Amino acid sequence: MPIFTPTEITDNYMKASVGKAESPAWRLFVLAVAAGLLIGLGGVTSSTAAHALDNAGMVRLVSGLIFPVGLMMVILMGTELFTGNALMITAALDGRITWGRLLRNWGIVFAGNLVGAVLLAACMAFFGQLNIGGGDLAVYTAKVAAAKNGLPWANAFVLGIFCNLMVCIAVYQANTAQDTAGRILGIFFPIMGFVLAGFEHCVADMYYVPAGIFAYMNPAYTGMIDAAGINTALLTFGDFIAANLIPVTLGNIVGGVLVGATMYACHRTKSAK
What we know:
This protein has about 270 residues and is an all-alpha fold. The chain is built from twelve helices and no strands.
């Protein structure tokens, strides 16, 4: 089966963006909650697989091999992901949607992704999933959250740029294929790469950081986390918003817009809108 060319993908995505921009708010929000949940499940499964490993390289490799399941589910199920929707910039640049409609989509989808991911984090922390390894998974989850909240602002921003470069490339590559296997392969390698490299994804962090905060709030794990020597002062929602979510989100926007604008400038057709 032939694949779509970059020009065809760009045109197809601009057409799809019109539907995304005009979609009712309730529909966007529901699909965004689903996407936040699905990306979070990628974090759940990858953390569960990697939490008992001692070698940092192996932790990243195992996480990278498993985490892509999240974006696979998002794309194949047709849900709404904030970072991927950065590519809607193509339709705005082409005049097919207004800038107001673009920002409306981004705002609703961001909120829905946050709700889905945080709800999942609470369920994992308070209903036993973090008990795996006798609570070792809870300690690992808190350690990851503290590390993410402890990143310097500029680091979180730049790592966010490179993350969404790779996520949006994964979305483009998925859209080259017309069959499920091809779409999965297009997604897998760039997402594995960003996890291996330690880049920062705002929707993934909507799961990872709240899960660590909730783990510390759960009395079943508090003592274990304290004993592990983790900087628990960083396990607050204030640090999550100011030190992680804001810079990573801004970086993700820049990275995604760079991909979309580049593809638009180089591959758009001259056909009528």
